[in-house]
Amino acid sequence: MLAQRSPRTAVSLVAALALLVLGAGASTPARAGGAHAIEIADFAFAPATLTIAVGDSVTWTNADAVVHTATSTSGAFDSGDLATGESYTLTFSAPGTYAYLCTPHPTMTGRIVVEPAPATAAPSAGGGLPNVAVPAPGASARTPAAIVLLLMLGLGLGVAGWRRGQAR
Ligand SMILES: [Cu+2]
User: Is 156 inside a domain boundary?
Assistant: First the structure.
């Protein structure tokens, strides 16, 4: 009876280790919505052109003494009047180029370029795509360790099963 406990304990330990190594080997999570700032100052948007990723948010803040707006020329968004110090935040969930202007001062224009989400390179899907992100050198070194641990786990389970079989 006692003999059965040690293989199981070892299996749990190996399984925990394997999960740890596999977890550490997983690629960093996709960049979660980054935040960008555009200052409205001296009757201009700064930066006038901003390139962001899908899911990122942009906050316009009016630093001028007069009211401005950030109003999409296609009707996609409208900040409404922004008084001095007021801000407007918008999250862009679709790729594309969004031109906008200030309604009271239409010569004030800006552009948000929303790029599609980058292809997330899963460690196992290292396919033939030329511009797939290359995993960091450390990541490839972890893979053999994970395989060894999985093999050990399999071996441990096999031993445990064999012991159970013997006990009957
Ligand atoms: Cu304005």
Answer: yes
